[in-house]
């Protein structure tokens, strides 16, 4: 009787977690689709990874979370050891991948900075060209909102235009063809460093979000293994 009660308790906890995961996945997927529909012209700034936009990342993440949550729900309802173990393994792989990415990011920060700036500068040459309206809009929004110009300096645009000129989004006061005026009318701050500083200033919020995500994943792993062990014990007891 006690074993049955334990199984029911574990089942309830794990089922709630799985349902929560599915709802979270639906929410992430919904936001991604909304961004794709409403902000379809806003794409990545990277020339090497043109599909790596916020909308696409959210859609892929939301889909994976929904699939994993669905596997967990079915495994809990059916008390299926295979599905429960599959849920545990998938969640563990994702957790280890995230941990590896974080470690590599801190170890190779300088190299990542160098590569990112080089890639962004390559992307500048696609600004205003056919088929790259997403990248064009992205740079215009970044420069306008962060009051910056170019990747490391406004002179980055000189290589793009082959003349002393910047996009109009670099201007202190926007007007048509204001990018043809003197440098005194342009933003001087480099966009890469400006955005990097903004991220550092909001590092606490990013850290809290990452910590909460890690805790949720650890809870999921704990619930999954607890449920799996309870089912195995029940099968052994019944046998």
TrEMBL record:
Similarity section: Belongs to the tetraspanin (TM4SF) family.
InterPro entries the UniProt entry points to: Tetraspanin/Peripherin, Tetraspanin_animals, Tetraspanin_EC2_sf
Top-level taxon: Eukaryota
Location of the protein in the cell: Membrane
Keyword ATP-binding: no
Name assigned to this protein: Tetraspanin
GO biological process, any: protein-containing complex assembly
Residue ranges crossing the lipid bilayer per the database entry: 12-37, 57-77, 84-108, 203-224
Swiss-Prot/TrEMBL keywords: Disulfide bond, Glycoprotein, Membrane, Transmembrane, Transmembrane helix
Membrane topology label: Multi-pass membrane protein
GO cellular component: plasma membrane; vesicle
Pfam families linked to this entry: Tetraspanin
Main location: membrane
Molecular function in Gene Ontology: antigen binding; integrin binding
Cysteine pairs bridged by disulfides in the record: 149-170
């Amino acid at each position: 009787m006690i074993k049955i009660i334990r199984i029911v308790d574990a089942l309830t906890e794990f089922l709630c977690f799985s349902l929560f995961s599915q709802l979270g996945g639906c929410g992430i997927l919904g936001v991604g689709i909304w961004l794709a529909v409403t902000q379809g012209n806003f794409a990545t700034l990277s020339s090497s990874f043109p599909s790596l936009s916020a909308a696409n990342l959210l859609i892929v993440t939301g889909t994976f979370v929904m699939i994993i949550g669905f596997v967990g729900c079915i495994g809990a309802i059916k008390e299926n050891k295979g599905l429960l173990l599959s849920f545990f393994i998938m969640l563990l792989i994702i957790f280890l991948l995230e941990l590896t990415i974080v470690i590599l990011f801190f170890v190779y920060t300088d190299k990542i900075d160098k590569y990112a700036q080089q890639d962004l500068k390559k992307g500048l040459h696609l600004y205003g060209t056919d088929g790259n309206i997403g990248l064009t809009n992205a740079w215009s929004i970044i420069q306008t909102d962060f009051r910056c110009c170019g990747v490391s300096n406004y002179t980055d645009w000189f290589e793009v235009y082959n003349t002393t000129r910047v996009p109009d989004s670099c201007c202190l006061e926007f007007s048509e063809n204001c990018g043809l005026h003197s440098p005194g009318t342009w933003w001087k701050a480099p966009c890469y460093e400006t955005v990097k500083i903004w991220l550092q200033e909001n590092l606490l919020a990013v850290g809290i979000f990452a910590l909460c995500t890690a805790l949720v994943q650890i809870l999921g792993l704990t619930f999954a293994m607890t449920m799996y062990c309870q089912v195995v014990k029940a099968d052994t007891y019944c046998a």
